Amino acid sequence: MFLSLRKKKLLKELERIKKELLEKYHPLRIILFGSLSTGRVRENSDIDLVIVKDTNKTFIDRAIEVALLTRPNLAIDFIVYTPEEFKHMESQNNYFFKEITKGKVIYAE
User: Which of 34, 58, 65, 73 would you label with 18, given CA atoms 20 to 30 Å apart?
Assistant: First the structure.
């Protein structure tokens, strides 16, 4: 029961965040990964998002910008890559990129 409630809260917050991002941040792609994307939600599960956006801001400034813009009500990890960075990760085929590709694309331009 508790985990079902936790999953509902996470999904509701995900929809709110996605709407905010699409209206105000204009990403090229949003990928949900981690426990929520696989349905294996635990009591300490959060929302893990990779966002791809054309920007000149630094890696840290991007995450701060998204957090300030969306003002999450639950724990969320925002990781924002430029298209070039994302392509580079793909070409390296590293472990983290493999984890991301196990996720779900919830928006793509």
Answer: 58
- In sequence order, the β-bridge partners of residue 50 are 31, 79
Helix (H, G, I), strand (E, B) or coil at 90: helix
Report the alpha-carbon angle 82-86-92, nearest 5. 145
Instruction: Tell which residue, 4, 5, 103, has the closest CA to residue 47.
Output: 103
**Among 77, 78, 70, 83, which Cα is nearest to 24's?**
70
pTM (2 d.p.)? 0.93
Tell me the CA distances in angstroms from 35 to 7, 41, 64, one per residue in order. 10, 5, 23
In the chain, where the domains are located: 5-108
**What is the distance between the terminal CA atoms of the chain, rounded to a whole angstrom?**
36
pLDDT tens string 19-73:
999 999 999 999 999 999 998 999 889 999 999 999 999 999 999 999 999 999 9
Q: Between 3.40.50.720, 3.60.20.10, 3.30.460.10, 1.10.238.10, what CATH number should domain 5-108 receive?
A: 3.30.460.10
